[in-house]
Amino acid sequence: MGSDLSPLVITxxxxxxxxxxxxxxAFKAAASEPGTRDGxxxxxxxxxxxxxxxxxxxxxxxxxxxxxxxxxxxxxxGVLLGSINIVAIMMLGRVLFKEKLAPMRVAGIxxxxxxxxxxxxx
Length: 122
Fold this sequence. Notes:
- By secondary structure, the protein is mainly α.
- The protein has helices at 7-32, 39-47, 50-70, 75-82, 84-97, 103-121.
């Protein structure tokens, strides 16, 4: 990390990654629960599941953390640093949901990670 990224900025960045990734994974869990329901019945079923509400809570927290983070860093830097969420979500999707990581996706993970490292080290 660059020397001008304070401990507060780094903490907010890590929190953002955690709550954004948690929200995405919770929504995936809610949407993946087995069932043969269609239409409004499926939505009612999902609304009754805790994973949907965990995802919503994570997104509310992510919104607040993201605002705090962006108040401390330039937008161009913050958005680039925030890209690491993509990597975290893809890797956790592989571990938790057994999703496939094709070679091009792995290449994307590597490139995004390199980009975030470059921005962080500036």
